[in-house]
Amino acid sequence: MIAVPTLDPRITWSVRMIDADSGATLAEHDPHVQCETASIGKIFLLLEVARRLEDGTLDPDQPVAIPEGHRVEDSGLLYRMRNQGIGVHDAALLVGAVSDNLATNALIHLCGLESVRAVAPALGYTQTSLHDYIRNERTPDLPWTPSYGTAAELADLMRRLGAGEAFSPAVSARVLDWLAADTDTSMTADAFLLDPLAHVDAEYQGMVLRHKTGSVGFARVDTGLLRGPVATVAYAVAANWKQSPTDLRAPVIDGMRDIGERIRLHVTGLARDETGLA
Asked: What is the secondary structure of 131-198 as a DSSP string?
């Protein structure tokens, strides 16, 4: 089992860690509380793209049109590129690697928002989904959030991806391959001590990570699958502080890293006294 650390009560947390092989819950904290999950819902977009690549309705080299009404910046690289004429596979890779907002909107436009929204229910999830395009500004007339979810459903999603059960082994493998490139190890994954830019294969202590993060001004979320020498853990850690008068990202990141350290010790089989920790 894994002990959940004491978490800051000013923050809304949703946390679950499960053994990816047995499905047993290792630790949790309010796992059914729904949080705004920023970019986490992009996993469902990647699943829809992967399904279409597998059934042949999309070609991996097919150019992706960028709708003028959905041009966005911030997260990602595509908006900074001089040549934005990339194909479906490379757009999905940008989403997996740098949570690319412009590539996300282009792929949602290609697949259709309603089709992408239907992915989570097709997997049996009722409290977790990608809900809308990424927007430069979210006004009251727009959907309330780009994505939402619970730790219970997100951890289960990562377990199913690892088991090849997210629609099919081929679809699951495609999505995990894109997520292998994720460069954001600033949250829970910071404790895994991996090279942020190169951890496709086992890079430290025999660990292999596949994960996705999400960040907005009032939320940090990290969901992933960490394989180690002695165990594999599917995890989800979501933190929201939307109603707080102050920015609570510092205690949030501290809590996420503490959870991550406990996951690392579990999958590697290391004891805390072997790492110099109390």
From this structure: -S---SS--TTS-S-SEEE-HHHHHHHHHHHHTT-SS-HHHHHHHHHHHTT----SSGGGGGT--TT-
Q: Is 92 helix (H, G, I), strand (E, B) or coil?
A: helix
Enumerate the domain spans of the chain: 12-274
Q: Comparing C-alpha atoms, which of 20, 14, 5, 135 is closest to residue 74?
A: 135
**Cα angle 114, 35, 253; round to 5:** 125
Q: How far apart are CA 97 and CA 189, in angstroms?
A: 14
In this predicted model, what pLDDT tens digit does every residue of 134-154 receive, in sequence order?
A: 998 888 888 889 999 999 999
Give the SS3 label for residue 47.
helix
pLDDT tens-digit series, residues 87-136: 999 999 999 999 999 999 999 999 999 999 999 999 999 999 999 999 98
Topology annotation, domain 12-274: Beta-lactamase (3.40.710)
Q: Which residues pair with 212 in a beta bridge?
A: 223
- 206: phi > 0 → left, psi -120 to 50 → alpha, else beta; which? left
pTM summary value? 0.95
How far is 114 from 125, CA to CA, in rounded Å?
15
Closest CA to 158 of 193, 109, 125: 125
> Do 277 and 265 touch, CB atoms closer than 8 A?
no
